[in-house]
Amino acid sequence: MNAESNNPQRPGVMSINLIQQLIDNYRQNHLSAINNTLGIEDAHSIWFDLPKLKKFIAMIEEEANRINPDTTEEDLGIRFYYASYPKIENWNIMESHPVPKEYAERHTLVMIPTLKKENEAGDLLDYDFNSLDANGEKISLALNARRPILPDDGDGDGDGDGDNPGLGENNGQLTPPKASLGESY
């Protein structure tokens, strides 16, 4: 095995040199451009505790199996969307999802469950899914890759005007503003 590559026979194992190079590439190119353009010190990492991740995965499996008991582990996944928090003057949209205000404008990740589903052409695709509608009732698990999303009016009433609940996770610790103590890369 080449020590500089991923081994498909051992998922979750990467060479330290490759990890460092990928992180350095991001910091030297993307992060630098973002910081210079926006004039901020953007986050370069996000940390989630293991119990939170396990609960999120268990919730995905539970919701998928409740709607379709034939759903297998191989049918499920998680898509990581790059995202950023709003500017401080628009922080009111964060009311239902308490996050420290010092995260304003910084990078984050939003994790969305996916479900493998066959499209019209017969290809198996990983579709984002949401098992809850605005009233908390179950809906079809597999949604189109793109669907209209109404802006959130911030009232949290679930009346279909943008407050629709969905399976997703975002609440991790960003570095910065958190100190980078404990990071190896």
End-to-end separation: 24 Å
Q: Give the count of helical stretches.
A: 2
Neighbour order of strands in the largest sheet: 2-3-4
Radius of gyration: 19 Å
Class of secondary structure makeup? alpha+beta
Proportion of residues in extended strands: 15-25%
SSE run: HEHEEEE
Low-confidence stretches: 133-162
Explain what you see.
With 185 residues, the protein is of the alpha+beta class. The chain has two domains: 1-39; 46-175, no CATH class. Helix content is 22%, strand content 17%. The chain is built from two helices and five strands. Strands 2-3-4 form a three-stranded antiparallel β-sheet, covered by helices on one side. The radius of gyration is 19 Å and the shape is globular. Residues 133-162 have low confidence and may be disordered.
List the helices and strands and how they pair.
Blueprint: H1 16-38, E1 45-47, H2 50-67, E2 76-84, E3 107-118, E4 124-128, E5 173-175
Explain briefly what this protein structure is:
The chain is of the alpha+beta class. It is built from 2 helices and 5 strands, in the order H-E-H-E-E-E-E.
State the main characteristics.
2 domains, two-stranded antiparallel ribbon, 17% strand, 2 helices, alpha+beta, globular, 185 residues, three-stranded antiparallel sheet
